[in-house]
């Protein structure tokens, strides 16, 4: 559902999605959203149906799991509650059933302006009675501001007798500014009447003071001396954002410096990497000849928007100089290939990049070869 302008959910009105696997409710509003008192976005009991879901509880009486493990079932507590699954940072999964209690559904709410919740946003699990209850579902909110006096909940369902409570769901909130009361945001495990082991575990609640979400982090690269690497990031936001790749030219535990397109030098002034697309989602990196004798360097991306900055995980570029033929392995073929160039006095055998091919280069290559990758 996409809406341009202000969207108001009036008193007595409710938005939801149909029951069962494959269903979810996604709302994208280029404006403000107001959920009035008595109004709701509710997908409680709209998740996985009886006996279904990745966190389905064992037997008839164990609770379903998702963000928290489901409570045990049976008079001897011998039926294990459903397991954990899904992401605490980007929750999109439905809650699982506890055989009778249905899991909570899934809501994705993107609001470019202000989100006011005086009513409720709910993805609770269904109660199971004397049998297993459903786990809470997913609520993922991105908004400029979040305010109001209502409730945001993805709690597990409750059980009686020998039934296990459902595990709590998952809630993630990305906002620049939040005045919404934290005690009205909950992912509680469902209660039970038989024993503490029958209670569902609480789920996960993640809150970020920035609307940027980094969905995919850069990964470290190992390349040969003549190869190239690429660091990628996937970020999302409710509005515009900028990317700036950085590195540590002086090595680990030193200052981070913005990369520039083209050659970038280490502290001593030797150009060691050539990079492209320093403000894009994929940074191309080519190690230069001067890089071979340096320790691996770390790279990261700074994602900035009106809220501030979010920094990606670090990823390193390691040059495996022993892989001379760039086939991804260090073996006798690399040694033979280097020896052939060295014996011919070819400039490609100048490992230390000093303009000469001599025993210093041979010893340096041998050192890298013996070190492997």
How would you describe the overall organization of this protein?
The structure is a single chain. The chain is 7% helix and 33% strand. It has helices at residues 332-343, 359-371, and strands spanning 2-4, 7-9, 14-15, 25-30, 33-35, 40-42, 106-117, 120-122, 138-147, 151-153, 170-178, 185-186, 204-208, 213-216, 221-224, 229-232, 234-236, 242-247, 257-258, 262-265, 271-276, 282-287, 297-305, 308-311, 315-320. By secondary structure, it is mainly β. Helix 1 runs antiparallel to helix 2. The protein contains two helices and 25 strands. Strands 1, 2, 4, 5, 7, 9, 11 and 13 form an eight-stranded parallel β-sheet that branches. Strands 15, 18, 19, 23, 24 and 25 form a six-stranded mixed β-sheet that branches. 46% of the residues are buried.
Layout of secondary structure:
Blueprint: E1 2-4, E2 7-9, E3 14-15, E4 25-30, E5 33-35, E6 40-42, E7 106-117, E8 120-122, E9 138-147, E10 151-153, E11 170-178, E12 185-186, E13 204-208, E14 213-216, E15 221-224, E16 229-232, E17 234-236, E18 242-247, E19 257-258, E20 262-265, E21 271-276, E22 282-287, E23 297-305, E24 308-311, E25 315-320, H1 332-343, H2 359-371
Parallel strand pairs: 1-4, 2-5, 3-6, 4-7, 5-7, 6-8, 7-9, 8-10, 9-11, 10-12, 11-13, 15-25
Antiparallel strand pairs: 14-17, 16-22, 18-19, 18-23, 20-21, 21-22, 23-24, 23-25
Helix pairs in contact: 1-2
Q: What is the gist of this entry?
A:
The chain is 7% helix and 33% strand. The protein has 373 residues and is mainly beta.
């Amino acid at each position: 559902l996409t809406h341009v302008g202000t969207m108001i959910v009036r008193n007595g009105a409710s938005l939801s999605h149909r029951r069962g696997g494959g269903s979810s409710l996604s709302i994208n509003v280029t404006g403000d959203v107001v959920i009035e008192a008595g109004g709701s976005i509710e997908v409680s009991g709209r998740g996985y149906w009886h006996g279904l879901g990745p966190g389905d509880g064992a037997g008839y009486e164990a609770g379903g799991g998702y963000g928290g493990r489901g409570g045990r079932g049976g008079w001897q507590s011998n039926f294990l509650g459903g397991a954990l699954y899904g992401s605490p940072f980007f929750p999109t999964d439905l809650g699982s059933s506890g055989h009778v209690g249905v899991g909570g559904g899934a809501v994705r709410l993107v609001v470019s302006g202000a989100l006011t919740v005086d009513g409720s946003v709910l993805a609770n699990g269904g109660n199971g009675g004397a049998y297993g209850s459903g786990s809470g579902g997913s609520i993922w909110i991105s908004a400029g501001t979040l305010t109001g006096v209502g409730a945001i909940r993805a709690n597990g369902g409750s059980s009686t007798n020998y039934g296990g409570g459902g595990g709590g769901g998952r809630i993630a909130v990305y906002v620049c500014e939040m005045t919404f009361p934290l005690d009205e945001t909950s992912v509680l495990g469902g209660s039970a009447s038989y024993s503490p082991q029958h209670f569902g575990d609480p789920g996960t609640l993640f809150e970020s003071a920035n609307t940027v979400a980094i969905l995919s982090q850069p990964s470290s690269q190992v390349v040969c001396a003549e190869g190239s690497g690429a660091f990628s990031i996937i970020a999302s936001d409710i509005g515009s954002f900028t990317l700036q790749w950085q590195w540590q030219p002086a090595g680990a535990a030193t200052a981070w410096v913005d990369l520039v397109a083209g050659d970038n030098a280490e502290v001593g002034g030797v150009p060691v990497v050539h990079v492209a697309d320093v403000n894009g989602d994929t940074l191309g990196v080519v190690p230069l000849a001067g890089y071979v004798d340096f320790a691996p360097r770390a790279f990261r991306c700074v994602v900035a928007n009106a809220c501030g900055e979010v920094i990606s995980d670090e990823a390193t570029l390691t040059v495996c100089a022993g892989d001379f033929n760039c086939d991804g392995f260090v073996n006798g073929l690399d040694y033979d290939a280097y020896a052939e160039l060295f014996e011919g006095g070819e400039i490609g055998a100048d490992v230390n990049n000093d303009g000469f091919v001599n025993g210093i280069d041979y010893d340096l290559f041998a050192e890298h070869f013996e070190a492997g990758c």
